[in-house]
Amino acid sequence: MTAIDQAAALREMMRRPGRASRSGASRVIAVASGKGGVGKTSLSINLAICLVREGARVIILDADLGLANVDVALGIVPRWTLEHVIAGTCDLVDVLQAGPEGILILPGASGIEEMANLGAEQRRHLTESLSQLESRAEIVLIDTAAGIGAEVSSFVATAPEVIVVTTPEPTAITDAYALIKVATRQASTARLQLVVNQAHDLGEAREVARKIIAVAREFLDVELTLLGSIPSDPYVGRAIRQQNPLVVRYPSSPASLAIARLARELLGSRTQVDGTRSGIIQILNRVARRASVAGSGRETP
């Protein structure tokens, strides 16, 4: 499909009535990790596809301001980003990229910080665009940057749900705890869920989760739940090298089946968060305000 054909298809989708959520806002879930190399972006992409297969409409917001990992993982080279929408260079539909099996991708959130300084007309235009988009997405997955930097902490502090991805490696466990600690210090009220990736077996995954949950409860007074685990699977590396999502290229692989279970688990738990749902517009505005405060040298509230 050419860029022109894709834009036309997306415009048609935006005109069609979407399935609105009961709260009128998308369910926003940040996917984060304390360090790189634990499979966070791969999980975001494959989880999005599995959610679509279960009947949900899903958008991935690539919130890594530097590396744009979602684009690279799928072999996408976007022409525009959210920054161009804010500048008035293009419409939001021009920025959206059509991904595998109907997922939508909002690439390179490099324009988020500028949202705090928009004029009234610019803010109205952007809000209308995001509202139109949000009415057609039941779930927005935010693929954050790896680590515990300011960008990540802003999303972790503002998203109503956060999936923390780790592996059984000691450094990954330590960094996952550091990320949870950052969320706690930022007075986050997010529902924190843990995914143990690249586990040798279910017993190892449960033991890793038990340790993290126990330490977080004792020292941070925060409750985590184990969303699930994904086994170590050689097909994951093959799919990544092919720039093809695992669940598309190798749908029967052990990791693919595990991610499909995670998607069903997420959808099964949605009624528990409907009452506190915040849409992507509110999330981006909060992140923009935090970025503006941090840039001015004032202490972030």
How would you characterize this protein structure?
With 301 residues, the protein is of the alpha/beta class. Helices cover 49% and strands 15% of the residues. The chain has 13 helices and 8 strands. It has helices at 3-15, 40-53, 69-74, 82-87, 92-95, 120-134, 150-158, 170-185, 202-220, 234-241, 246-249, 254-268, 280-296; strands at residues 27-33, 58-63, 97-98, 104-106, 139-144, 161-166, 191-199, 225-231. The chain has an 8-stranded mixed sheet, sandwiched between helices. β3 (97-98) and β4 (104-106) form a beta hairpin. α2 crosses α12 (254-268), α7 (150-158) packs across α13 (280-296) and α8 (170-185) packs parallel to α9. The radius of gyration is 18 Å and the shape is globular. It starts with a helix and ends in a 5-residue tail after the last helix.
List keywords for this structure.
8-stranded mixed β-sheet; 301 residues; single chain
Largest sheet: 8 strands, mixed
Low-confidence stretches: 17-22, 271-277
Count of alpha/pi helices? 13
Helical content class: 40-55%
Task: Specify Rg, calculated over alpha carbons.
Answer: 18 Å
Provide mean pLDDT, rounded. Answer: 81
Biggest β-sheet: strands ordered side by side in the sheet: 3-4-2-5-1-6-7-8
Strand content bin: 15-25%
Distance between the termini: 46 Å
Secondary-structure element string: HEHEHHHEEHEHEHEHEHHHH
Q: What is the 3D shape?
A: globular
Instruction: Please provide the count of β strands.
Output: 8
